[in-house]
Amino acid sequence: MFVMKGVTSVEIIQTGRLTLRDLEETDWEAVHSYASDPEVVRYMNWGPNTEDETKKYVQRSIVSGREQPRKDYELAIVLKKDEKLIGSCGIHVSDPDNQEGWIGYCFNSKFWRQGYATETARALLRFGFSQLNLHRVFALCDPENAASAHVLEKAGMQQEGHLRERKLRRGKWHDELLYAAIDHK
Length: 185
Prior knowledge:
By secondary structure, this protein is an alpha+beta fold. The chain has a single domain, classed as Aminopeptidase, CATH 3.40.630. Helix content is 25%, strand content 38%. It has four helices and nine strands. It has a nine-stranded mixed β-sheet, sandwiched between helices. Helix 1 crosses helix 2. The longest helix is centred in the middle third of the chain and has 15 residues. The two termini are 19 Å apart.
C-alpha cells in the first residue's frame, strides 16, 4: 500500500516493491548508469549525460527539495529487497493556484518491463492527490514511446491530446502526447 512520512526534508513513499525517496549526493553513480545510456534517454530532452551533468542534476534535486514551500519532488526509485537505485522520478507542482502538477520517470534499462514504472506512476499520483492536494496531474510522452504511454494508461491516466511539434530535442521538433488524471474527491 501507500505510505508517506516526512523526515526533515526527506519524503518517503513506499509501494509493494519500491521506496521513493529524496536523491542523495551518493546516488550520482547509480543515476549516471542510466542517464548516460543513449537508449534510456532516447525520448528525453536531456542526455546522454556526462558525469558532471549527472552530478549537477543530483545536486539541483537536493537543493530544490529544501525549498519551502516545496514544489518539486525529484526522487530516487529504490528496490526494497536490496536497496538498489533503479531509476528516478518526479512530481512537480506546476500551477499551485489551480492545484495542477506533472509527473515523470526514468529507469535503468535492466529494470524495464517489470512493472516498476507503473508502480511508480501510481504512487506519484496517489502522493499528488493525497499529500499535495492536487486536482489534476499530467504527463507528457513522445508518441513513439509506446511503453511509456502504456504505463501512463495502466496508472489510470487518460490521453487528452496530441501536441504537434511541441519539443525541440537534439535539433528536431517532436510531438508529445498529453495524459492526465483528475482527483474527484
